[in-house]
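Fig. S4 source data, part A: sequence.
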Amino acid sequence: MTHLDREIASQPAVLERLLASQSRAVADVARRLRAASPRGLLLVARGSSDNAALYAKYLLGVRNRMVVALAAPSMFTRYRRPPDLSGYAVLAISQSGASEDLCAVTRQARRQGAYSVALVNQAGPLERESDDVIRLCAGPERSVAATKSYTAELAALAMLSLALDGTAAERRELSRIPQMAARVLSASAGLDAAAARYRYAQRLSVIGRGYNYATAFEIALKLKELAYLTADPYSSADFRHGPIAMVERDFPVLLVMPAGRVFADTFGLARELRRRGAELVVISNERRALRLARVPVILPERVPEWLSPILTVLPGQLLARHLAAARGCPLDAPRGLSKVTRTR
């Protein structure tokens, strides 16, 4: 078994461990954030963690009514003209805790007196440059493609959102996520045959919206780095503003569309794509959406939309893994990549 396979399979246990071990640390961060009373939150991340930050933008914006922005690290490193962080807090998200450009942002936050938090899996310089730390507790991630650290990041962000403003019922919903994740992985076990269908595909579009906009980006990244497939992520709204012109008969489109506030919009787009002859892969727990798909990927549970990205990404990870295997790509060490990418 490859490292990638073990790490995908370990995600329910990782989520369980995170929820059990980090509640106090998350509560402390939430208390200090409330005390700081920032007018906004600046997020900084790279790679898969950047997609987790995109989830946080929706999560903390919708649930907690916070103004959330994604940092441009080159302002801090290459241009050396960092913005004024007065009244803001900074949240850095990193599996490795070693990216110099993320450290530059949190270092500048400290210089300007802005409260900063590092959400990390590995101990490293990033936590030393930050005021507080939330640990992902995912254990060493040996496969280059991030899987368990990504879902742990999403779950840690959900914990923070709940600690800032949440109900007992919502906490119970989050506590059920590890068991739901195990069921989703089990239900997605047959994706190897579906992946083989796209062995010779050259391009694919991945679509999500709202909370699952981040899921579209993360699945597209997994398809790129594991299977070397040109996979472009879009929101269902943005796809209508030009990219839909690409669609012709048998053009493959993967849609992430669980039940929720944006389902009607993504379902409408799926129907339009079907009329244009696109071949649809649909990740959903809505039967009417699954009926449109050439490859339906059934989410076996109804889950609140704000927590759904922790689950919807799992079939995408497996699809990328099986497509990579069908193409003869190495699963643990994609060409030209290393586990820690050092950028400035």
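Fig. S4 source data, part B ends here. The chain has a mean pLDDT of 94.
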